[in-house]
Amino acid sequence: MESIKENIDQVIWDYPNPFTVSIKVSNNEIDQLGHANNQVYLDWMMKAAYEHSESLGLSVHDYLSIGVAMVAKRHEINYLSGTFLNDNLIVGTWIATNDNRFRSMRKYQIIRMDDQKTILRAETDWVSLNIKNGKPQRMPDKFIRCYQPTIT
Asked: Where does 4-146 sit in CATH, by number?
């Protein structure tokens, strides 16, 4: 049986070169209807976003030391199909836009590996905020460098 890693190369993504995170649906993510709860998809999206951010050189620790963070302002989630216990999923994410001032937008695609079906498409609008006062603050230079769009 091929590994998930080997199958990732065969996935048809909406955009090239996603940052990816592998997920295996666990029992505690299943709701009373027998499928993954809708809230869990958002958790998977945030996991991918934060891991991608860390891979670009910005961790939560960096946010705290700088005093500025990118925080989610709005999510738009299109649920296309359900997921079930032990499904193997790949979450792909891309930085779609960055105004180099206050806002950026990230896109997501979740694919179930067993049938290569896209089960979710989503996007999140992010805003640069001062952690202490909660007000918008211009992105530090490090944010601008790290959060350049990956979709061209």
From this structure: 3.10.129.10
List the 117-130 sheet strands across, edge first: 19-24, 88-98, 103-112, 117-130, 68-79
Sorted by where each begins, the domain ranges of the chain are 4-146
Task: Check if the beta carbon of residue 96 is closer than 8 Å to that of residue 123.
Answer: yes
Residue 130, strand partner residues: 68
Per 3-state DSSP, the chain is made up of helix, strand and coil in percentages (nearest 5) of 25, 35, 40
**Res 139: pLDDT:** 97
Whether 111 and 101 have beta carbons less than 8 Å apart is answered as no
Residues of the chain whose pLDDT is less than 50? Answer: 1-4
